[in-house]
Structure to design on (276 residues):
């Protein structure tokens, strides 16, 4: 899910976040002490992260877990915990290709839940249709990874939960796999569905792509602002068979426009079939 300047509220995550049995769930952001220290900014800079507008967000997930993240205007976030264990920036690849994280999903079937509970976190009909189309697109590729979709409130039983966060606008926020499992929370903003089913599909498919291990195709020089997201401990491994050059039709481009088709590009297909 993307930096998408229009399509996402990003994050460079190394593995991120989730909710409880109440239908009325609050997912509030605590803005107290949200300024990084000089030492933290230096470390982020050494990781290749654009530190111009970095702040710290405290995010409460649907399951009530709370974690602090560095955010800088993308749809990925860097956990504050363990920052010093992150790797500094290494040698960059000058071609803009498809990239993945070091950690992938080992399960062959993952359960995807479209959350329909209250508290402003539930997907409306437009977002639900976008999620259906996103899952159908992944499953139509004949991957060894299969997604089983349902809708409801039992997020505890799901491997990957798609839900709404009120502070994300028309973007999204997600993380990367860990321990062979997908990142659990694919969050979208309340304005995503206002832009129609195709846009909803694009944002959701993008954030789900992060959850199963895809990086932005332009992670080291984002299309919209030229910033570098940093490799971090998650890595940014080139996927063989994908072409060089900027694939602006990729579902995983960081800064997509509202006119996106919501479809996978040929390189997206190559990348997904290679890793799954």
């Amino acid at each position: 899910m993307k930096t998408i300047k229009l399509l996402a509220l990003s994050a460079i995550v190394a593995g991120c976040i989730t909710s409880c049995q109440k239908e009325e769930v609050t997912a509030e952001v605590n803005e107290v002490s949200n300024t990084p220290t000089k030492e933290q900014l230096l470390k982020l800079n050494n990781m290749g992260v654009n530190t111009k507008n970095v702040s710290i967000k405290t995010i409460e997930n649907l399951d009530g877990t709370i974690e602090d993240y560095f955010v800088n205007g993308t749809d990925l976030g860097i956990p504050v915990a363990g920052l010093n264990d992150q790797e500094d920036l290494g040698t960059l690849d000058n071609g803009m290709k498809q990239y993945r994280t070091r950690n992938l999903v080992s399960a062959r079937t993952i359960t995807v839940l479209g959350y329909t509970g209250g508290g402003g976190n539930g997907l409306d009909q437009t977002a639900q249709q976008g999620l259906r189309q996103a899952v159908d697109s992944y499953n139509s590729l004949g991957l060894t990874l299969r997604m089983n979709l349902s809708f409801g409130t039992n997020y505890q039983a799901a491997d990957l939960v798609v839900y709404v966060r009120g502070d994300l606008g028309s973007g999204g926020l997600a993380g990367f796999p860990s321990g062979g499992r997908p990142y659990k929370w694919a969050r979208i903003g309340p304005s995503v569905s206002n832009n129609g089913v195709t846009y909803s599909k694009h944002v959701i498919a993008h954030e789900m792509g992060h959850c199963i291990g895809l990086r932005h195709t332009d992670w080291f020089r984002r299309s919209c602002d030229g910033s570098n997201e940093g490799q971090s401990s998650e890595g940014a491994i080139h996927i063989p068979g994908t072409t060089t050059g900027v694939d602006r039709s990729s579902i995983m481009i960081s800064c997509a426009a509202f006119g996106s088709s919501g479809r996978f590009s040929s390189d997206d297909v190559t990348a997904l079939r290679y890793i799954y």
Notes: Confidence is low (pLDDT under 50) at residues 1-32, 91-96.
